[in-house]
Amino acid sequence: MIHATRLRLIRAAGAAALGLALAGPALAQPQPQQAGQGATLDAIRARGTLVCGVNTGLAGFAQPDSQGVWRGFDADYCRAIAAALFGDPNKVRYVPTTAQNRFTALQSGEVDILVRNTTWTLSRDTSLGLDFPAINFYDGQGFMVRANAGVRNARELDGATICVQPGTTTEQNLTEWARSARIRFTPVVIERLEEAVGAYASGRCDAYTTDISGLAATRAAQPNPDEHRILPDVISKEPLGPLVRQGDQRLTDLVRWVHFGLLAAEEFGITQANVAQMANDPRPEVQRMLGRTGDLGRMLNVDNAWLVNVIRAVGNYGEVFDRSLKPIGIQRGPNALWTQGGLQYAPPFR
Amino acid sequence: MSEAVLDPRFRRKPPKRPLRLSWSDERVRGIVWQILVVAVIAVIVWWLWSNTVRNLEIRRIATGFGFLNREAGLPIAEHLIDYSPTDTYFRALVVGVLNTLKVAVVGIILATILGTMIGIARLSRNWLLSRIAGVYVEAIRDVPLLLQLLFWYTILQGLPGPRQALNPVEGVFLSNRGLRLPWIDWQAAHSFALLAFVIGIAGTWAYARRARRLQMADGQPRKVWPIGLALVIGLPIAVWGALGAPWTPDIPELRGFNFRGGIVVSPEYFALLVGLVTYTSGFIAEIVRAGILAVSQGQWEAAQALGLRPGMLLRRIVLPQALRVIVPPMTSQYLNLTKNSSLAVAIGYQDIVSIANTTLNQTGQAIEGIAIIMLVYLTISLSISMFMNWYNARIALVER
């Protein structure tokens, strides 16, 4: 009796092992979402929500407000893309990501797109399996010091202790700048933003370094912003933009053209308030953008009124910028439109 | 052990019996089960591996360890070996491993000393002392380590800035940049003196062994300490003197933003060390207390009846028996302390986890980075285990 039971057990185990061996290669097959053209976009449509990776909380870019609604420049980009896809800017699920886990979250499919002030570099573009569809914010790295330290520019930081977050381009820029400027410094490398800023605020560091936009956000959040000064030196180029996985060109195109749509809307004077009236604007490019003529929306695989939905949801690029970044003291600077001498430029809608 | 093997009865073996191809044969069943288990494990490992490799390829994510030879470009504040950001990722990771060892080794030694003292204090007949030790153990064990680390780090940040640094003794400065101590301008003569010191310790140990052996033979106790003192203190001083006795003190002084000169104990290292030592010592104290309580009262009484003095009693009778109970759980605490040091990342001490994390973030090669971290901890932990198992075997009760 006992032996018979054991025999059955052994047979069952053997069958299971064989099953697993056969299932292995089957399970290891590429999932269709990863390989097929446009599969990510189809998956987002089928799910009905866009899963958007954002910062864990950076004032001006992505931060939940008192009602728990995500606000900020990056959060508005998530809204704009959802509006283009579904006609509804609220069909977004926000996933906070750290500097360390953001790429893994996108690579593994945990998020559909990443809008988390991420710098476009060659090595990130080529070795992560990800694509940068657009640059939505031109930034640069700078330093913040206490106003009473008597430091007027970055060259006076020789011998200073500098707080920096690890795992970002910030850390590498800092060492390269120090080497070429022949400046010696002591790094204090702390992963969490709150702890890093806390170390600077308590006086553990003489200076805190990150992108100027981040410095402005941090300075604005200090109990007494006037006690801190952002030095005029900009030591790097930080083109920030959204990221998508490689393999779905349709999503890449859509994200890219939502950004261009926001820029072009500002250029043609289309705002959240007047988008309905602008449908009657006689300029042919405006007619095409707003889907009155042509089928640009259908070429992007979305509704032909996609840009109307986007502008109605978040406004044009200037409105998005002014709503989130102006209050924390960030000027347009290089992010002005090309017509104003800035770098933001959209190709023709044709 | 050796006597047991020599006992002829232990050499007897059951008579050999041919294998029968039947489920009723215990050995056949055993072999089949083992083959099955190995096969299942192999299939799972192979599936995980091939699935990973395939998906990395499909997602066009770079693989391999080629990045180790690339320039790291990451700044590291504390390094035991020379390091600059132009060095490779490999060297940066080695610096990280050394930083982990620096905190783990010092932490294990201090936690053992502190834990033993508190464990003994808790057994003390002095009411106040035993209660203080009891409160310490309960408080320290019940608060999460991460919280304790942040607590110590915040306290150290509350120290005054370098310009208002506390200056208790000439040349010693305590500020929120750390503890600055005077040091000497290190030269070859100092390295040789250090070598002589190590040789002196080894020589003293060898002499003590010989003295013990001779005492076993003729019963005469021999004094070890005069020769030990000469070897440990005298020899290094003689070597240092013979090489010209160089002595240039390196006193820290405030220049610009910070102190220059001397040596520094950073707030990050100090907070991590204090946090790990106090936390682990709470557990070690309980292990030591349990070990001492495990020695039966009769042993104490018998030793006292033989006229042994208290020190001798502890050293010769109680501790050897208590250690057998103490050492195995102590190994676990040493492993815990080493692994807990990975919390360093929260307070900015650059250990292997911090540096490997940065590396995997900059290169995007997460699997390789995590594999390196795992390999490092596995190696350190296995080394500690091996050493402690060896020590445990050495002090184990020899049954005759």
Tell me what the structure shows.
The complex is a heterodimer of chains A (350) and B (400). Chain A is an alpha/beta fold. Chain A has 2 domains: 39-138 and 239-335, D-Maltodextrin-Binding Protein, domain 2; 141-236, 3-Layer(aba) Sandwich (D-Maltodextrin-Binding Protein, domain 2), CATH 3.40.190. Chain A is 41% helix and 17% strand. Chain A is built from 14 helices and 13 strands. Chain A has helices spanning 2-28, 32-35, 39-47, 73-86, 102-107, 122-127, 169-180, 193-201, 212-221, 249-267, 284-289, 296-299, 306-314, 317-324; strands at 50-55, 63-64, 70-71, 92-97, 113-119, 130-131, 137-139, 141-146, 161-164, 186-189, 207-211, 228-230, 238-245. In chain A, strands 1, 4, 5, 6, 7 and 13 form a 6-stranded mixed sheet that branches. A 5-stranded mixed sheet of chain A has the order 10-9-11-8-12, with helices on both faces. Chain A has a two-stranded antiparallel sheet with strand order 2-3. In chain A, helix 4 crosses helix 10 (249-267) and helix 4 packs antiparallel against helix 13 (306-314). The longest helix of chain A has 27 residues, at 2-28. The model of chain A is unreliable at 1-36 (pLDDT under 50). By secondary structure, chain B is mostly helical. Among the domains of chain B are: 2-58, no CATH class; 89-158 and 265-395, MetI-like fold (Orthogonal Bundle), CATH 1.10.3720. Chain B is built from 12 helices and 7 strands. Chain B has helices spanning 2-6, 26-58, 89-122, 127-142, 145-157, 188-218, 225-242, 267-293, 297-305, 310-340, 352-363, 366-395; strands spanning 173-175, 178-181, 183-184, 249-250, 253-255, 258-260, 263-265. In chain B, a hairpin with a 2-residue loop joins strand 5 and strand 6. In chain B, helix 3 (89-122) packs antiparallel against helix 4 (127-142) and helix 3 (89-122) packs across helix 8. Chain B is globular and about 85 Å long. The model of chain B has no long low-confidence stretch (mean pLDDT 88). The chains are: A alpha/beta (350), B mainly alpha (400). At the A-B interface, helix 1, helix 5, helix 6, helix 7 and strand 10 of A face helix 2, helix 5 and helix 11 of B.
